[in-house]
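Running this now, will post back.
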Amino acid sequence: MHPSSKNNASQAPIGLISSAASERLLEQRREQKVSTPWGTAAALTGRIGGRDAVVVLRYGPKLTIPSHKINYRANIWAMRELGVERIISQNAIGSVNPAVRPGDIMISHDFLDRTKARPLSLFDDSECWVRVDMTEPFCPEVRQALLGATATMPDRVIDRGVFACVEGPRFETPAEIRALQRDGADIVGTPLVPEVTLAREAEMCFASIAPVINYGAGMAPAVIHVGPGSMNDTYYSGGLHDRIEQALIDAVAQLPSHRGCNCGHALRSGFHGQRPAWLKYCSLDELTEAASTGVPVVAEQTA
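Update: finished.
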């Protein structure tokens, strides 16, 4: 249960985490500073696809914050404080699987966590043990909206795949890429984790759209970040970035007004201990209400 749920859930803004957001993508934008238990987070509010939206630029407005230095907990919680219930993550990444080519777009269904020093939980400093279920790591409703929005794109869209998230800031070695291949990864990048797990703890829906812009180390002569022939050049010069932004607009417009998934009940079966004071609204409230009234709580089922 989020603050927005106390009013009309259809009015809850859609969240987007990305490296950039053009004026075409995010209209009527305003800058926001949001206080959280983990510091102040910057966010942009506005409209995407005719709906209220909150955008977090994960690398900062000037792209100067590397993945291993992002304040992930503040970013996720700021979106929740602004009423967001569903998050789309835009991740331009590399291929691990030779069958996945630069220019493809992947809507991942699973992930591998290969990070090393990032926060693991919103509750690390709280007197509780939280173990949320990750059997279905990405929200099926948000994934379906992304698949629907990309269905008519000229690019090849891959509807399942495993996203390996690594620490960075450097690129992977050829040996590391081979290890990820053996572990079943299809794509690799440095964002995503812990965004996806923190969102689940915050009872927010989360899914990723990942344009592939390079091959991993050892699969091509070199991996180049910026300049002619670089991964960024591939992403922006061929129009892929613009098509991804249009897909984001269309996906937001296609999302149902109300959630029918189980993401909003993640803490109900995964929380043990003392509830921290900053956790003001969540599905634990429903358990408390059920205990006081004697009416059992029935989880919503995905349509």
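The first helix runs from residue 72 to 81. More later if anyone needs it.
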